[in-house]
Amino acid sequence: MLPLRVRDIAKTFVMHLRGGLRLPVFSNVSFEVAAGECLVLGGPSGVGKSSILKMLYGNYGVDAGEILVAHACRPVDLAKALPREVLDVRRLTLGYVSQFLRAIPRVPALEVVADPLIALGSDRAEALERAEAALARLNLPRELWSLPPATFSGGEQQRVNIARGFISDHPILLLDEPTASLDAANRAVVVDMIEEKKAAGTALVGIFHDEDVRDRVASRVVDVSRYSQRRAGQ
Ligand SMILES: Nc1ncnc2c1ncn2[C@@H]1O[C@H](COP(=O)(O)OP(=O)(O)OP(=O)(O)O)[C@@H](O)[C@H]1O
């Protein structure tokens, strides 16, 4: 069973506060992702790349089609799953590195990073040790580790976010521009981390605006504009 199969998904946003104005974005988007592959969603701004990623994570509703995830050895259709099932899939199967960290008040960076492992039942000391290693690898200054990330710079927050997203061993990992606010040295670290996930058999789906990063990590690129429901200038 492939980790992820997307069949004919479609999205139209309906603006209820604008008299039900309909904004069709894409339809009939289909792709599959095998273990060890990094599939990149490409195409110009506004074609729906982030929307697809949010649909894959269960944050946006799906108007049509199927999102089949291999979860605990059985296929689960995230397009129709109940909220409880979506949460279970996220806990065990589906990781997500969003563009920005949602900082939790008063929780130190180290615990923010270790939290997914602790939630999966790992030993707390071991989880904190792995979190330290991840933050050190991403060059986050040691004096920040015990502070809550709310006051960190954009790049520092993003490195906490990446460390948290990469720490667990979810079979599928979604990446929404993980390198956008990073300098060249840290971008190179993240490229290495993505390559290690691929080598470990993780199925990745990502958006990368940085062409150099995209060329280095992409196994395949799906051009989302092929499925666009928009006409030029619309
Ligand atoms: N929650 C929403 N409500 C209404 N419209 C939305 C919503 N989310 C996205 N859209 C619209 O859907 C279209 C696709 O947006 P999306 O962010 O998925 O594009 P993208 O390809 O990721 O763009 P970019 O490369 O600029 O980040 C845009 O026209 C956007 O305005």
UniProtKB/TrEMBL annotation:
Keyword line: ATP-binding, Lyase, Nucleotide-binding
Pfam families in UniProt: ABC_tran (PF00005)
Domain of life the protein comes from: Bacteria
InterPro entries noted in UniProt: AAA+_ATPase (IPR003593), ABC_transporter-like_ATP-bd (IPR003439), ABC_transporter-like_CS (IPR017871), CP_lyase_PhnL (IPR012701), P-loop_NTPase (IPR027417)
Domain ABC transporter: 4-234
Keyword match Aminoacyl-tRNA synthetase: no
One Gene Ontology molecular-function label: lyase activity
Family from the record: Belongs to the ABC transporter superfamily.
Protein name: Phosphonate C-P lyase system protein PhnL
Source organism (scientific name): Pleomorphomonas carboxyditropha
